[in-house]
Specification:
By secondary structure, the chain is α+β, with helices and mostly antiparallel strands. About 30% of the residues lie in helices and about 25% in strands. It contains 2 helices and 2 strands; from the N terminus they run H-E-E-H. It has helices at about 1-5, 30-40; strands at about 10-15, 20-25. Strand 1 and strand 2 (about 20-25) form a beta hairpin. The protein is globular, with a radius of gyration of 10 Å. The N and C termini lie far apart (about 20 Å).
């Protein structure tokens, strides 16, 4: 997943929390649609809550 998501413009950090079964993506000027597509392409589901 890290490879696909890190290629999205604006991504500066990807934090994986295995205990919580969650990934947090930090960055600036992230394109929501492009980021979601990279996550889905990696074979993962997207939670409904996305912080701005």
């Amino acid at each position: 997943m890290r490879e696909e998501v890190s290629e999205v413009p604006g991504v500066s950090e990807i934090v994986v929390d295995l205990g919580a079964d969650a990934v947090t993506v930090h960055g600036t000027d992230l394109e929501d649609e492009r980021l979601r597509a990279a996550i889905v392409e990696s074979g993962y589901d997207i939670a409904d809550s996305i912080a701005a």
